[in-house]
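To the structural biology subgroup,

Please find below the input and predicted structure for Lipopolysaccharide export system protein LptC, which we are adding to the shared reference set this quarter. The sequence is reproduced verbatim from the submission form. If anyone notices a discrepancy with their own records, reply to this email rather than editing the shared folder directly, so we keep one authoritative version.
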Amino acid sequence: MKWSAMNWRAIGTLALLCGALLSGWMMWQQRDRGTATGPVGKRPDYVLHDFQATVLDEGGRESFTVVAPKLERDPDVRTMQIATPEFQIPPREGSQASAWTINSQSGWVSEKADEVRLLGGVRAQSANADGKPIKIVTEELNVFPDARRATTASQVTLTQPGLILNGRGLDADLDAKRITLKNDVKARYERAAP
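Predicted structure (tokenized):
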């Protein structure tokens, strides 16, 4: 029996068709494997480098000023992530209180800029009514600039001339400089230098 050129072409075409169908079926079977589970390629809608920004409250008054090397804004929830920020929180208008300077390794700002979460090596500094320095050191601090409040559930060290307080948890009125440590409070008094 002789095979004609037509038969070889039919067999070749059939083989190619089977190969294509097999390849398609294998790709279909692999479609869900190896896919990422989180958002892939999500990018901020804007990024600022080496910037200073002043944020105003609803009444048009300064809520806070932030200086940092990098800020990224999430386009979906409109929150901001900030690398090594320094926040300046001024006292309320007409108040004689001093401004607060707060530094940390990272920061997060809510959509309406009414909450700031600071993480890693947080250091907050100001001066009391007598002009003496106040310093708060903790690992995380939630600041509400418009309400002039700060809170944390973490370990805190509060230093004033002649006094060092350690405790867990803090609630602070930033204008009145009224700072309350909530739990496990220990005090150490130091004699002021002459």
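Summary notes: The chain has two domains: 1-34, 46-189. The CA atoms of residues 110 and 143 lie 11 Å apart.

Regards,
Lab coordination
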